[in-house]
Amino acid sequence: MFKWILAIGAFFLFKRNFGLAILGFFIGSIIDNYQKAMARARTQAKSEGREFSSEEFFQYYQQRTSNNDVQSMLMALSAAVMRADGKVLKAELDYVKGFFSQQFGSQFSPAHLQTLKRFLDSGQIPTQQICQDIRSRLPVESRIHLVHYLFGIAKADGNVSSLEIDVIREISNLLQIPTLEFESLKNMFYRDTNSDYRVLGVEATATDEEVKKAYRQMAIKSHPDKVAQMGEEFQKGAKEKFQQIQDSYEAIKKQRGFK
Predict the structure, then answer these.
(1) Do the Cβ atoms of 245 and 211 come closer than 8 Å?
(2) pLDDT: is 11 or 70 the higher one?
(3) Domain, as residue range, for 194
(4) Using one digit for the tens of pLDDT, what is the confidence trace for 52-72?
(5) Rounded-to-integer distance, Cα 5 and Cα 223, Å
(6) Is residue 127 located within the same domain as residue 3?
């Protein structure tokens, strides 16, 4: 079904472009074949009196990421955060779609949204296995910005819940993100009276010199050039993170009255 929907849709949407119609047919065939395979797996699982396991979903994930499909890796973790508070909101979905459209351009396809739906609908998401896979593919700087992106999903509806924080913390730990880095990211989105200090990775009792030193170190580690290879949307996220560090430092300077 999807192969014809995508083929016809691409043909008319892109001014009768036969090349894109063929691409749509190909992508739709992948979706159709996947749906049939998943249906067979579920039928077999039910006949054996068991639930559809997370291992079976991870097998699908592995198939999608066998060619370094970073999009599917991010979709899996996106789904974990979106499901955290028990409700998937349109604002969160729009945030994810906007990120992927800008980050991956033509490489982002309806098949990836189908991947997101599969993970959202699944009983379990094999987060530990997925994060282990990501650790082997991405350097720590990119993993840190990935966590920044996940906090962006949580904040899309204007509020970051404690359940969402717990899920992102678990992912951050599995991605082997240093605790100091996680706390810095969290306080960019979930703020209290000491958040500006935590963004810089220091306590409110730190001396002026310690604050300045922490700012310099954080600014170097978080510079957008660190993820230059990751594409436009990661660059956008990195710049936002860098600006949040700048804003926190300026707020502390103003509060304490030093230059």
Answers:
(1) no
(2) 70
(3) 53-256
(4) 555 555 555 555 544 446 677
(5) 43
(6) no
